[in-house]
Structure formats: C-alpha cells, structure tokens
C-alpha cells in the first residue's frame, strides 16, 4: 500500500446542487476528470470535501459513489478524523470502506492537545483502524503542530501508521521530519505551495486541492519532481503559484469550487459557514486561466 500512495493525490470536493444537497452526478464527473487527468490516487472526505458539514448518511454516500466511479482504477483514501478519539475510532470501525486502501486522519483540532496527547490519540486509532492510517498535520486549522519527533515516534511504534500529510507550511520543519522518520514512511505534502520543495527534499508526493482542477499539470509537475527534474518542476510550480493564491484567497474549497465551476465540472456552492467565491474572485480566476491556457497553446 505504501508504494501506491505516491505522486499526486487529490482531496476531492463534495459538489452541491443549488439547494445544497450533494450533487452525485457532478461528483462522478469530477472523479472521471481527475482519473483521466493522470492523478495517482483519490482522497474522499478531507477538509476540502466540507466533511464537517456533511451528515453521516451523506458521508457514506460520498464514499460509496467515489468507490463506484473509481471502479478499482486508483488507490482510494477515506478521511476520518476529529478531536474525540473514541468517536473517531468508532467511525473508523463502522464505516463501509469497501474499495478503500487507507484512512487519512487529521490531528485533533480545537482541543490543542500536548504532543503526548497527539501521540496517544493516534496510537489508540492505530490499534483499531481497519486500514493503514496516514496522519494529517495542518496547524492553521487544528491550532496545534505535530512536531517531527512526535511523528517519528508514531512511525516507529505503530505499524498501522504509514505516513503523514504534512501541511505545516514550514520547509525547515519538513526537512527535519523527512530526516527523522524511517525511510519507508510516507511524507506527503499537504500544501500545494510546498509540494515541489517537499518532493525535492525526499517526500513522496502531494495531496492537492488545485490538482483536481488541473490534474494534468499538477501530476506532471510532481512526476518531474520525483524524477529529480528540479528545474521543470520548480518552473511549473512557480507558474501555478498565483493560481494557488487565488483558490485559497477566500477560503477552501470556495476558490477551487469556483474554478471547477468555470471548467464545467460542478457548481460553486459551499455550505455555511463558508461562503461561495465572490464575483471579484471569479473574475480573477477567469483572467488567470485565460492567460494560462493561452500560454500552453
């Protein structure tokens, strides 16, 4: 399984209809779009999927539809996380994960646990999860930072924990992390801006937001980085930097949903408390994409 979660993974949005109910046909269309674009694996029910606002039945439907549409073509990762350790473990044990290969689980948010609390949380989950776990460190959302020594300790002590999606945004911490963990432990960028630097430092790839809108370009960039082609990978990363800034300017996934809407894949709606992208952001995205596509011709 470890060898399968390399390259470009995409954290899929949950498309909504105008009435904010899940848009299942659009979700199927999105899955086909990213598979045909050359990504390496799919992530369901991450932060980008607005999983915090999905009811349990909606989560189950999203997992099922993605697995059906994927039809065994790519590895699948299911997002199951939270700050109630017992509840997260119960959800992992009860979820229908047929067709899935791993679980992505975020470090406990809001509670701001100590490093020992984070360690014990993931150790508990590792002993109960039905699939291998990829941890997710995203301090900007959780309010706490999983330090490299904590990650390395979990990597050594828990066979069921196989990697980490690292979105600390600090390339120095990422270098320290890669040096601290076992060689077969997966260090995956969780930040589109640090994807190429992470890969060039020894990481195995990215779980991307932008990659679902531009799967061909993002997959090409990461493959170049993994092949040691630092120049082309860095150049492509820099060309996408303004777009990455745009899709996160008004929060995630409002920006990428507007971009997907402009590409004809799904509507731009998000659920409260998030707000759909503004008319100004829509214009800026359209302006960038017009110039970007013109340069490709």
TrEMBL record:
Keywords: Amino-acid biosynthesis, Cytoplasm, Diaminopimelate biosynthesis, Lyase, Lysine biosynthesis, Schiff base. One of its GO terms (cellular component) is cytosol. One of its GO terms (molecular function) is 4-hydroxy-tetrahydrodipicolinate synthase activity. PROSITE patterns: DHDPS_2. Its main location: cytoplasm. The active site is at 136 (proton donor/acceptor), 165 (schiff-base intermediate with substrate). It catalyses: L-aspartate 4-semialdehyde + pyruvate = (2S,4S)-4-hydroxy-2,3,4,5-tetrahydrodipicolinate + H2O + H(+). GO terms for biological process: diaminopimelate biosynthetic process; lysine biosynthetic process via diaminopimelate. It holds the Pfam family DHDPS. SUPFAM superfamilies: Aldolase. SMART domains: DHDPS. It is an enzyme of class 4 (lyase). The record marks 47, 110 as: Part of a proton relay during catalysis. This is 4-hydroxy-tetrahydrodipicolinate synthase. It comes from Robiginitalea biformata (strain ATCC BAA-864 / DSM 15991 / KCTC 12146 / HTCC2501). The gene is dapA.
């Amino acid at each position: 399984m470890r060898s399968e979660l390399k390259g470009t993974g995409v954290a899929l949005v949950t498309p909504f209809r105008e009435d904010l109910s899940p848009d299942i046909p659009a979700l199927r269309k999105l899955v086909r779009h990213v598979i045909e674009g050359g990504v390496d694996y799919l992530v369901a029910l991450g932060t980008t999927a607005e999983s915090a606002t999905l009811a349990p039945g909606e989560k189950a439907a999203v997992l099922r539809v993605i697995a059906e549409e994927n039809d065994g073509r790519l590895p699948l990762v299911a997002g199951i996380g939270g700050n109630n350790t017992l509840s997260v473990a119960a959800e992992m044990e009860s979820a229908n994960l047929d067709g899935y290969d791993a679980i992505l689980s975020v470090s406990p948010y809001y509670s701001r646990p100590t490093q020992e609390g984070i360690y014990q949380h993931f150790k508990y989950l590792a002993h109960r999860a039905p699939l291998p776990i990829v941890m997710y460190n995203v301090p900007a959302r959780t309010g706490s930072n999983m330090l490299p020594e904590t990650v390395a300790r979990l990597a050594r002590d828990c066979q069921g924990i196989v990697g980490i999606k690292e979105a600390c945004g600090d390339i120095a911490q990422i270098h320290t992390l890669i040096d601290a963990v076992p060689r077969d432990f997966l260090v995956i960028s969780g930040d589109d801006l640090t994807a190429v630097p992470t890969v060039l430092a020894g990481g195995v790839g990215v779980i991307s937001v932008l990659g679902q809108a531009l799967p061909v370009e993002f997959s090409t960039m990461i493959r170049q980085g993994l092949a040691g082609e630092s120049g082309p990978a860095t150049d492509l990363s820099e060309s996408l930097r303004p777009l990455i800034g745009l899709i996160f300017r008004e929060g995630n996934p409002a920006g990428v949903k507007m971009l997907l809407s402009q590409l004809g894949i799904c509507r731009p709606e998000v659920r409260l408390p998030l707000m759909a992208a503004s008319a100004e952001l829509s214009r800026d995205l359209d302006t960038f994409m017009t110039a970007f596509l013109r340069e490709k011709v």
